[in-house]
Each structure stands twice: as structure tokens, then as C-alpha cells.
């Protein structure tokens, strides 16, 4: 993620092929119905990004569905890191997330 006018955006090196970009999406973790204060903007803040880095979450995106629900998808580099994220729940403002 990189800031663009205070909004975090995803970007890939121009030299990456579509196959290489899709490979980044292989290992994913999802937070269903995150708290209202957990969104793309708050996750990209310096004080919150460190917890994502500790879990080896390389990239994330917020998905808003037609029914009004949301989910946050995190992308990791290895299966072991994905398993660690699943086994150790994330804590956000004192609440445990699944």
C-alpha cells in the first residue's frame, strides 16, 4: 500500500506479469464484518500498519458488498504465514477478530 492524497492505494511494479500479480493473491486471510473503525484508511496509519507487518500481511483491501456488509482481505507471502494468522486471532481496540 502506498499513500496517494491521503488514500492508500495498491500498486505493482510495471515489470510484473499478470501471473506474478495473481501469485500475490494466493495466500489470503479474511476478516468478516470488521468493526466500523477498521477500514482501509485506519489500517494504513503508521500506528496500525506495524501490526500488519508483524503478521507478514503484504497487502490488504477492503471489500464492500451489495448487502452493506464488509470484509477485509489480507495477502501474505507464504502458507506458513497464512496459517499463523489463522491460528492467532487479531486484536483490534481490545476486541478479538475472526
How do the strands and helices of this protein lay out in sequence?
Elements lengths: L1 E3 L2 E3 L8 H6 L3 E6 L7 H4 L2 H9 L2 E8 L5 E7 L2 H9 L2 E3 L2 E3 L1
> How many helices does DSSP assign?
4
Structural class: alpha+beta
CATH topology: Alpha-Beta Plaits
Biggest sheet features? 3 strands, antiparallel
Strand tally is 7
Element-level helix/strand string: EEHEHHEEHEE
If you compute it from the alpha carbons, what radius of gyration comes out, rounded to the nearest whole angstrom? 14 Å
> Uncertain runs with pLDDT below 50, 5 residues or more?
none
Strand content: 25-35%
Shape: globular
N-C termini distance: 23 Å
Count of spatially separate domains: 1
Second-tier CATH architecture: 2-Layer Sandwich
Percentage of residues in helical conformation: 25-40%
CATH class: Alpha Beta
User: What's the pLDDT, averaged over the residues?
Assistant: 82
The largest sheet has its strands arranged as 3-5-4
